[in-house]
């Protein structure tokens, strides 16, 4: 696991006055415990032009990044509630994240074993609505109402390319909070990932992929540090694509029941002049790299912010990894939620 060298705080943070005691996190109103209805899917998004995205200064590009030098603790901004904050962004302001740049593939893709169209099935097939977990080490957890099952992906690249890309069907787990859903045929080992929107003919298509049943022990045994690093690098790309769509991303426990904590909430916010990449987590990740410097003494929420660029937005994946490591949870126990960013 990557452990950045401890930086000199004076090099990272601006001098700040003693912060006032933090109020109770406003994000509590977002993270209410609620059991979702599996059949309630997200409405198709309205079709409208995306705001222009300024390009970053190429002279500032770096081959890599040091997360500790990208983020600083937010000095006084209180956590905003994604469900209730209706403050519009100025008309002339737009997200400073540049166009989505997919990560280079580390290895050649295998032959795609997917097919597009209607859900595969035959008389007597039973398709189950499932929530999709995080793809890790070639395995995929699928959350049904009665628990989670594990499956080995025959084409991991095809699955990862759809998850978090904003093109797949979603199920509402709480007000204006959605998770990606799919249809599973356990007997055939087929997962049908439906599209969010219909095509010009009115057809709601999607992509199907074959899965092989696996045990929990097999899935957990396949996970190593390299696989975890790839997962959080992928998460950084998911966040970058999401903020371009005007959405927030929440990393929290998977399944249909959603507790208020633990959670990492990632979005763009503006102070009226500039846009910032903001990563908020609760509980406070005590002792975690980057997070451990100048942690708040009151409350149980911590916020890091940095000027919004592709680099800092992608770094949210690494910051999430550091925070999750303090939760005592395995990545297979996590899920991603999405929703409209109220600051846009």
Automatic annotation (TrEMBL):
Biased composition annotated in UniProt, kind: Low complexity: 85-98
Region (Disordered): 1-124
Record's compositionally biased regions (Basic and acidic residues): 39-50, 66-83
Domain of life, per lineage: Bacteria
Name listed for the protein in its UniProt record: Uncharacterized protein
Source organism of this protein record: Actinophytocola oryzae
Phylogenetic classification of the source organism: Bacteria, Bacillati, Actinomycetota, Actinomycetes, Pseudonocardiales
């Amino acid at each position: 696991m990557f452990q950045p060298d401890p930086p000199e705080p004076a090099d990272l943070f601006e001098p700040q006055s003693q912060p006032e005691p933090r109020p109770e996190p406003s994000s509590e109103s977002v993270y209410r415990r609620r059991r979702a209805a599996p059949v309630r899917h997200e409405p198709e998004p309205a079709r409208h032009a995306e705001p222009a995205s300024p390009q970053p200064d190429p002279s500032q590009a770096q081959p890599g990044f040091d997360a500790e030098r990208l983020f600083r603790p937010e000095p006084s901004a209180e956590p905003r509630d994604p469900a209730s904050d209706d403050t519009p962004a100025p008309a002339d302001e737009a997200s400073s994240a540049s166009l989505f740049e997919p990560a280079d593939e580390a290895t050649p893709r295998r032959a795609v074993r997917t097919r597009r169209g209607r859900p595969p099935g035959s008389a007597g097939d039973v398709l189950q609505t499932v929530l999709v977990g995080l793809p890790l080490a070639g395995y995929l957890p699928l959350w049904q109402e009665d628990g989670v099952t594990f499956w080995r992906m025959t084409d991991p690249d095809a699955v990862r390319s759809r998850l978090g890309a904003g093109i797949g069907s979603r199920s509402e787990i709480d007000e204006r909070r959605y998770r990606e859903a799919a249809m599973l045929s356990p007997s055939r080992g087929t997962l049908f990932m439906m599209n969010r929107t219909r095509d010009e003919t009115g057809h709601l298509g999607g992509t199907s992929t074959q899965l092989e049943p696996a045990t929990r022990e097999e899935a957990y045994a396949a996970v190593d540090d390299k696989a975890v690093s790839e997962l959080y690098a992928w998460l950084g790309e998911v966040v970058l694509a999401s903020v371009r769509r005007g959405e927030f991303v929440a990393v929290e426990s998977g399944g249909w029941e959603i507790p208020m904590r633990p959670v990492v909430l990632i979005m763009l916010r503006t102070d009226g002049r500039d846009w910032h990449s903001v990563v908020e987590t609760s509980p406070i990740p005590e002792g975690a790299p980057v997070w451990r410097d100048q942690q708040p003494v009151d409350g149980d929420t911590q916020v890091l912010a940095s000027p919004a660029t592709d680099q800092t937005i992608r770094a949210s994946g690494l910051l999430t990894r550091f925070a999750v490591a303090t939760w005592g949870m395995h990545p297979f126990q996590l899920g991603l939620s999405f929703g409209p960013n109220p600051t846009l």
